[in-house]
Design a protein that fits this description.
By secondary structure, the protein is α/β, with parallel strands linked by helices. The chain is built from 19 helices and 19 strands. Bound molecules: flavin-adenine dinucleotide. Flavin-adenine dinucleotide binds next to helix 1, strand 14, strand 18 and helix 19.
Length: about 475
């Protein structure tokens, strides 16, 4: 059992690590050090006086799978069930997703009929892509770009249009550079195990432990595609902070980790601007680059790998318009890179979560996402670009894509530098190298956070939990 555990980084990963450490009841002292003045990291919501909520980071969490259920369990344990806003299966935001190509919004095909007929912008029915997968040979490369994998298994058109757009929506990244094995390990494993992705997904991995709660059952019964919280996703971080305080976690804000030194008892001296802390174990939940700058020289092999994990910058522009002004109803639309590098997509927040609209007269809330892997090339230098330029770009897109000519009644522009890590080719090997090095050399350091094994909120929470379970199972030195 470890003695004092210091968790560095108070985003959702660090908060989840602290949560599971205190819940275990077997760690005498847990200390959380956060570099900024607030906890939550990218979970950041603006609540206005007239009751509207604007998300600057994550806005929709998927309930499905082991990781989705794990988050729902934690939400219930935190007493947040009544705050949950589900998007049920029969809602238009669950059923309708669009692509914007050549001045037109195209609804993505869904259902059996949707894949059997030719639906623009595709030139043949999607069922052909499925047949191709069922007959294609198993890949032999240890890693491959997402674009190359989908082209090989499903055809180039699907990769160029749908997968290009999807990767921009999820990772703000370029599917030609992102690793299939690291970004979509389920697809990689499905092909390796069953030769076909469709067969692999249909037959499943089997044997994953199931979690159960009334919220999980409700999500299943109502076929939720995603959920949020009434006062925004920041509520989750606030509830976790409250839980940690009640359970005696020492929280240091405005305390960036500036160095880590090994101590003779195989622990750590954790260096902060105002002094230092002693720890038997450190869980790092800071971005890979930030960690690479503070690890001691003895961990150079780890630092070398950490430095290679890059992240992209995204501008998030929240807009509110008067009235119900959208020409379509759905979750939102994505824009493939060949159409417009800078414009990743537009989320129709007021459709998925109308409960977060302001009270009184009808309004429409949208979020325009800009940049990602194309930021420097198609938007500009993140250190130079002004909020006015970003706002202009966003409102122009709303006008061109959605035919909305009026001015927004509210606009919030946020520039998130290096906010989404990019798992490029070889990422799996880099993480493997680091995890193995730390284990083989018995270094009392765990690596969690979006830089490593999944960027979704669900992944971050689940991986934090797994790291804590590994640590407690290891019976570390005091
Ligand atoms: P972070 O949130 O980056 O937290 C790291 C923390 O470490 C920060 O608080 C930072 O201040 C702190 N820190 C940094 N350096 C130091 C240091 N030296 N010492 C101490 N502290 C330090 N996911 C979804 O599931 N659904 C979505 O809809 C979704 N949308 C997204 C939209 C945007 C715009 C972004 C940016 C992300 C989105 N994501 C979404 C992804 C998800 O929100 C993030 O991957 C996740 O929140 C990352 O959490 P984290 O704790 O690992 O990292």
């Amino acid at each position: 059992m470890p003695g004092t555990v210091v968790v560095a980084g108070g985003g959702i990963s660090g908060l989840a690590a602290c949560y599971h450490l205190v819940k275990s009841g077997s760690v005498p002292k847990v200390i959380l050090v956060e570099g900024s003045s607030r906890l939550g990291g990218w979970l950041n919501s603006t609540r206005t006086d007239d009751g509207a909520v604007f998300e600057h980071g994550p806005r929709g969490i998927r309930p499905a799978g082991v990781v989705g259920k794990n988050t729902l369990s934690m939400v219930s344990e935190l007493g947040l069930d009544s705050e949950v806003l589900p998007v049920k299966g029969d809602h238009s935001a669950s059923k309708n997703r669009y692509l914007y190509i050549r001045n037109t919004l195209h609804k993505l095909p869904s259902g059996l009929w949707g894949v059997l007929k030719t639906v623009p912008p595709f030139t043949k029915p999607l069922v052909w892509c499925g047949l191709r997968d069922l007959t294609a040979r198993r890949g032999t490369l240890p890693d491959e770009s997402i674009h190359s994998f989908v082209t090989r298994r499903f055809g180039k058109e699907l990769a160029d249009i749908a997968i290009d757009s999807l990767c921009r929506g999820v990772f703000a990244g370029d599917c030609r550079a992102l690793s299939l094995r690291a970004c979509f390990p389920m697809l990689y494993n499905a092909e390796q195990k069953r030769r076909s992705v469709i067969l692999g997904m249909a037959l499943g991995g089997g044997g994953t432990p199931q979690q159960d709660s009334s919220l999980i059952r409700r999500a299943k019964e109502e076929n939720w595609s995603q959920w949020s919280l009434q006062n925004g996703m920041q509520t989750l971080a606030e509830a976790m902070e409250e839980f940690l305080k009640q359970h005696g976690v020492e929280i240091h804000k405005d305390s960036p980790l500036t160095g880590l030194e090994r101590t003779p008892d195989n622990g750590w001296k954790v260096l902060l601007p105002g002094g230092s802390l002693r720890a038997a174990h450190v869980i790092s939940a800071v971005p890979a680059r930030a960690l690479s700058q503070v690890v001691p020289a003895s961990l150079d092999p780890v630092a070398v790998e950490l430095r290679q994990i890059d992240a992209v910058t995204v501008a998030v522009v929240n807009l509110q318009y008067e009235g119900d002004i959208l020409p379509v109803s759905g979750f939102g639309h994505l824009v493939p890179s060949f159409e417009d590098g800078a414009l990743l997509g537009i989320v129709y927040d007021s459709i998925a979560f109308p409960e977060q609209n302001r009270t009184g007269a009808l309004s429409t809330r949208l979020t325009v996402m800009l940049g990602g892997a194309w930021f420097e090339k198609d938007v500009g230098d993140p250190n130079q670009v002004s909020h006015e330029q970003l706002l202009l770009r966003a409102t122009k897109a709303v006008k061109n894509h959605l035919g909305v000519h009026g001015k927004p009644s509210r606009a919030i522009v946020k520039l998130h530098k290096d906010c989404i890590p990019q798992y490029t080719l070889g990422h799996w090997k880099r993480t493997d190298n680091m995890f193995q090095y730390l284990e083989q050399n018995a270094v009392p350091l765990s690596l969690i956070g979006a830089s490593f094994e999944g960027v979704s909120v669900n992944d971050c929470i689940y991986n934090a939990r797994k790291a804590v379970e590994r640590l407690l199972g290891q019976k570390q030195v005091p």
